[in-house]
Amino acid sequence: MKQRALSDDDKVLRRNAILAAARELFVRDSHQLPSAAQIAQASGLAKGTVYLYFRTKEEIFVALLAQEFDGLLRRISSYLESAALAQGLDGLLQEVCEYIATHPEFLRLDAMAYSVLEQNLSEAYLLEFKTSLTQTLVSTGQRVDQALQLPAGRGVALLLRTYALIRGLWQTLDYPEYLQRILAAPQFAPIRPDFQTELLASLRDFWAGALASSAAA
User: Fold this and answer.
1) pLDDT, mean of residues 151-165
2) What does DSSP assign to residue 150?
3) For residues 148 and 154, what is the distance between their CA atoms, to the nearest angstrom?
4) Is 48 exposed, middle or buried (0-12, 13-18, 19+ CB in 10 A)?
5) Closest by alpha carbon to 204, among 93, 121, 95?
6) H helices of the chain, where?
7) Which residues, other chains included, contact 69 with Cβ-Cβ below 8 Å and sequence gap of 6+?
8) Residue 144 burial (10 A CB sphere; 0-12, 13-18, 19+)
9) Backbone CA torsion sign across 172, 165, 24, 194
10) Residue 2 confidence (pLDDT)
11) What pLDDT shows up at residue 7?
12) What is the distance between the alpha carbons of residues 118 and 106, in angstroms, rounded to a whole number?
């Protein structure tokens, strides 16, 4: 058994190892949350060590979800601050779609947030999660305002609606396995478009309309 971490760096490394193990296990089977014991084994730590960092397995997965939100918003910020923005907004939307495609755990965890994860958190932990997420959203929204020369607060609204669009489209097209078999027939092709293709097209339509509306105001 490894010794308890003493330095701040060791603590960060162990916390990250726990989250990485949780992510890997969840990607393998996203129909249920793995137990703390499974996460401990996958991370090479004792179960008791895991509980030094997280009081429940729900805290682990909310921390993982927080990482996913933070990663997406930081990716948006990085693009807005880069020279690539001069080539047009489409590159930003492709960045968003690529992030969603390469983080399959993100939307599955998000779908469980209200009904499973947040129901089993302390009020203090939930408040910390929501506060941090709101702060990052607001700062990213401000960068959207600056980069696209929008009225103050418009960027936050666009990001929130973008998130709602992504979440809603994913939930609409995320058919369970039994339904996928039924919908494999050719006549159902109109209601089972490719999610990534549909997502990019939907984001293009939404942002084009939203920015045109802002310009006309």
Assistant:
1) 97
2) -
3) 10
4) exposed
5) 93
6) 8-28, 36-43, 47-53, 57-80, 90-102, 105-112, 123-148, 154-173, 177-182, 195-216
7) 133, 136
8) buried
9) positive
10) 46
11) 76
12) 15
Q: Tens of pLDDT along 16-27?
A: 999 999 999 999
When pLDDT is averaged across residues 201-207 and rounded to a whole number, the result is 97
Task: State which H helix or E strand residue 209 sits in.
Answer: helix 195-216
Cα separation, 156 vs 58, in Å, equals 28
pTM of the model: 0.90
pLDDT (tens digit, 9 = 90+) per residue, 49-105? 999 999 999 999 999 999 999 999 999 999 999 888 887 899 999 999 999 999 999
Q: How far is 61 from 24, CA to CA, in rounded Å? A: 12
Q: How confident is the model at residue 30 (pLDDT cuts 50, 70, 90)?
A: confident
User: In this structure, are residues 94 and 150 in contact, taking their beta carbons and an 8 Å threshold?
Assistant: no
| Residue 80 dihedral angles phi and psi, to the nearest 5° | -65, -30
What does the alpha-carbon distance between residue 140 and residue 134 come to, in Å, rounded to a whole number?
Answer: 10
Classify residue 82 as left (phi > 0), alpha (psi -120 to 50) or beta: beta
Amino acid sitting at position 187? Q
* DSSP at 4: P
